[in-house]
Amino acid sequence: MKKKVLIGLLGIATAAVMLTGCGGKKDSEEKKEPQEKEEAFEEDFPEEEDAEDGDFFEEEEEEETDTAPETAGVPCLEAWIKSVYETTDDGGTILLKGSYEVPVLTEKSAEEFPELAAALLDAAKTNRSTFRGDIEDEISAAKEQLSEVPESFGDGMFYSDNTKVLPQRVDGKVTSFFYSFSNYTGGAHGMYGQRGETYDTKTGEALALTDILTDTDGFDGIVRGELLEAYGEDFFGDLDEALSSYDPGLTDYSDGGESGEASFAYNWALSPEGLVLYFGPYSLASYAQGAQTVCLSYDKYPELFEEKYLPGESDPFMLRFDFTIEGIDVDGDGKSDSLTIDSKYSDDYSVIEGIDLMVNETESEAFKDVDIWPDSEKYGYYLKTRDGKQYVYVILQRESDYEEVLVFELKDGKARPVDSQWFSRGIRIDEDDDGYFERLLTNPDRMSFATKFDFLSSFTAERNYSVGEDGMPVSGEDYYTLVTDAAPEPLKAKTELDAKVLDDDGAETGEETVIKKGDEFNVIGTDGKSLLDVKLTDGTKLRLSITSVEYPCEINGIVDSDCVEQVWYAG
Fold first, then answer.
1. What pLDDT, on a 0 to 100 scale, did the predictor assign at position 259?
2. How many other C-beta atoms are found inside a 10 Å radius of the C-beta of residue 266?
3. In whole angstroms, what is the distance from residue 534 CA to residue 525 CA?
4. Which residue of 31, 226, 369, 500 has the fewest CB atoms within a 10 Å radius of its CB?
5. Residue 185 burial (10 A CB sphere; 0-12, 13-18, 19+)
6. Stretch (H or E) spanning 63
């Protein structure tokens, strides 16, 4: 039997960056062991005009595959991701590694929220162009430094630039997130920070701080009080002078014109529990003192916020973070807590053997026998369910585009490991722009996870999950829809295959037909057990029977290699 191996897309690890949440009191998948495969990205950036044309994400409008069911009234986000792995002309030395993300709505959410979808798409085009320009400049600088100081590269030394989307609050009223970045371009240390963007979910309007505050009089004083309460009098130098440069009425930096008195806009986002203000390194204190974050809680300052932008009291939420999340109230005492993902290394520090979740720098019981490389990507989601339960999902990027979800329960201010579950990465390739799409989790009632199947071809298909009673992801859906095409090209029937005709919604019409020898089709969905849905090149949707799920599978009682001319499996 002919087999072509499809090389998987590996995520580039991003550097750990601090993320802020907000405090404030308010009323099995079967494990599949991954197979090893690897691929490095070696690419040149396309011409700059590509970032400005009207074709960016245009494939979203094409009829590719159905998407998993989504809850109405709340938008679903996904990240468009570009990975960078650049080498010198002779192919010897790595100059820069990194990636950047921009958020967009899923196709189905874009139909429900067209104004928000358009606003995010416009911002995505602008931000993508900016990120790419920055990286191109850094690559040029790296080449110059390599020619002047060649010993500064090699042995794990290279430039890095990573930007990640960290959703803060995504509901029917507000869509708010931070862009979290970290980079290293030579010197004693790198730089990191966060930049917020917030939109009215219904209108798509980009919101300014003055849009969500009832009054800005005394705002600087409130911020000052929260900073002193969080960090203490001795932490800052002249805090009053530093804060005097911030203006809640600004949306960008102002050089002060003729007066020369520069002013800064507050850097903020709305979380499920309050207004998060982020001050990067050097903003209020030295680099060694890191970033400072404070949260103005909806509960503590009820008169400060416009009522139409207040969230529901029991709305569930998920907050994505890289390494540490601060400002959340884990134990319900109204004070800020922090969570940190901590790796447990082997004796020679070459392998991570366990993952711990620290609450306020206190270790918990760790997940044992977690064998991943130190540079493998790992990040977390802090989540609260509708009934007030708290969990952390630690996502480990594994080999061959698999990921393992480690679930910790948070109770009485302590973290306890529950269990882990394997999934495939729900990646949808964007061939036109040399990037890929991946779902962002924002709602514990609707989490999209993917599973890999091997029926006539290797493909990943997704369905929705929610948080179960024990904190583990559970699904009430029996059907998986494809994340991307089943194979790089349509499958061609090698023999006649009896099939049932489906309507546009995927329901059986009662009609039967035959896929003729030579007909081409793609897989569009499966229940993973007994049925395989396909779509002919003319758009007709049909249903085949899976009579054996064991490798090699059987369709309509016929072994896979006798069903189609070329079987595409990822091995």
1. 53
2. 21
3. 7
4. 369
5. middle
6. none
Locate the DSSP E strands across 171-224.
174-184, 191-200
Whose structure tokens read 């009080």?
Answer: 225
Q: Three-state DSSP class for 251? A: coil
Q: Is 333 exposed, middle or buried (0-12, 13-18, 19+ CB in 10 A)?
A: exposed
Q: What distance in Å separates the CA atoms of residue 122 and residue 132, rounded to the nearest whole number?
A: 16
For residue 305, give the DSSP letter: B
C-alpha of 64 from chain center: 22
One DSSP character per residue, 260-301 reads ---BB---EEEETTEEEEEE-TTTSS-GGG--EEEEEETTT-
Instruction: State residue 25's pLDDT score.
Output: 39
Distance CA 533, CA 497 (A): 13
Dihedral pair phi/psi, residue 488, rounded to 5°? -60, -20
Rounded distance, CA 174 to CA 157, Å?
Answer: 41
3-state secondary structure of 140: helix
Q: How many helices (H) and strands (E) does the chain have?
A: 6, 34
Q: pTM of the full predicted structure?
A: 0.82
The answer to whether 268 and 277 are in contact (CB under 8 A) is yes
| Residue 318: strand pairing partners | 383
Quote the CA–CA distance of 358 and 416 in Å, as a whole number.
Answer: 10
Cβ neighbours for 51, distance < 8 A, ≥ 6 positions apart: 125, 128, 129, 132
Question: How many other CB atoms are there within 10 angstroms of residue 467's CB atom?
Answer: 24
- What would the two tokens of residue 434 be? 């040399």
How close are the terminal C-alpha atoms of the chain, in Å?
Answer: 14
pLDDT block averages, 10 residues each, the chain of length 571 = 34 38 44 38 39 44 43 83 83 89 92 96 94 93 91 87 94 95 89 94 96 94 93 90 90 62 86 92 90 90 95 88 86 84 87 92 88 84 94 91 94 93 88 83 93 91 95 96 74 96 95 97 95 95 97 95 88 58
Short-list 339, 345, 366, 346, CA closest to 355: 366
The pLDDT, as a whole number, for residue 487 is 59
Amino acid identity, position 413:
G
Distance CA 442, CA 103 (A): 12
Let me know if 369 is exposed, middle or buried by CB neighbors in 10 A (0-12, 13-18, 19+).
exposed
Using an 8 Å Cβ cutoff, are 107 and 60 in contact? yes
By the 10 Å C-beta count (0-12 exposed, 13-18 middle, 19+ buried), 373 is classed as exposed
Label residues 519-547 b or e (16+ Cβ within 10 Å = b): bbbbbbbbebeebbbbbbeeeebbbbebe
What's the rounded Cα separation, in Å, for the pair 394 and 41?
26
Residue whose C-alpha is closest to residue 99's, from 435, 404, 439? 435
**In the prediction, which pLDDT does 2 show?**
36
Q: Strand 520-526 relative to strand 435-439: parallel, antiparallel, unpaired?
A: unpaired
3-class DSSP state of 330: coil
